[in-house]
Amino acid sequence: MTISIEELILRKIRKAKRGSLFFPEYFSAFGSAGTVGKSLFRLVQMGELYRVATGIYVRPEKDEVLGTVLPGIEEIAEAIRKRDKARIVPTGSYALYKLGLTTQVPMNVVYYTDSTARKIKVGKQTITFKRASARNLSAIGDTSKLVIQALKTIGKDKVTEEELRRIRELLKQEKPFHLQHDLKIAPDWIRKLLKP
Known about the structure:
3-stranded antiparallel sheet; elongated; Arc Repressor Mutant, subunit A; 9 helices; 4-stranded mixed sheet; 2 domains
């Protein structure tokens, strides 16, 4: 008895924990892109999968109070990063938001990447991947790379004392080696601002 592609996909999905993200190419071994696409479409109709964005699916988490819980922007961007074996860095207002320098959640979240430039619509938000130079992607510290992008967004002569105090506070948690590395590649004016 042959097992349908749909059944094969369903088995693979059910092995993954709820909240896991899937891309059609994960199932390419089961059949052609067209057949896989149709199977995924049917699984969405059955409620086994939820289509987060074009070509991105999730095995939805169910919450008694909230109902269907979908992955956040961060998780989606991370899944794309892993799939593309790429480097990504949050930039602009999203870097400011992640550092707590603004409370406003940006509607357009921009990441620099060394992979394909693309836009992904997720609900009311958009994730934009912009191709960037290796220098823009070579920071290694989790906090320091955000700080560099946030300061670039604020602008050279527009950084307030309050923002600087907050940034210095956050950088105390950064690994010294990562901070030293990232300061070396940061623009000159940022290096001067952050010199201890």
